[in-house]
Design a protein that fits this description.
Order of helices and strands: HHHHH
Largest sheet: none
Number of strands: 0
Structural class: mainly alpha
Length: 114
């Protein structure tokens, strides 16, 4: 059980990248391929430097997407249910991704310091 919890951030982020890859509907998506490979190498080789680098990239991308969701929400009329759905779904998804990237980075920074 402890092993499963220890790889939870990487697994969650890989699932998010796979979802992004399939939602774009393009087999050749270089961004998704690079992110998937970075997370895969991090998961299997347990390289702390690569893990911190990958978590920083995913954290920044998550912050960017949070701002994009808020910007898109502001284009809806006040009280529109579709806008509220967009805001809640987008914020939940990208805040969870941001939090998992922070957890992954801190986990590997602690390992590297010890």
């Amino acid at each position: 059980m402890k092993k499963v919890i220890s790889i939870l951030p990487e697994t969650f982020l890989m699932a998010g990248v796979i979802y992004y890859w399939f939602s774009v509907a393009s087999v050749f998506n270089p961004i998704a391929i690079i992110l998937f490979l970075l997370l895969g190498f991090t998961l299997f080789f347990k390289n702390a430097t690569l893990a911190v680098f990958t978590s920083a990239i995913l954290g920044l991308l998550s912050l960017y997407m949070i701002l994009a969701v808020i910007s898109e929400f502001r284009e809806f009329e006040t009280g529109d249910t579709e806008g509220i759905k967009l805001l809640t779904t987008g914020l939940l998804l990208f805040l969870a991704t941001f939090i998992m990237s922070i957890i992954m980075g801190v986990k590997h920074l602690i390992k590297k310091a010890v």
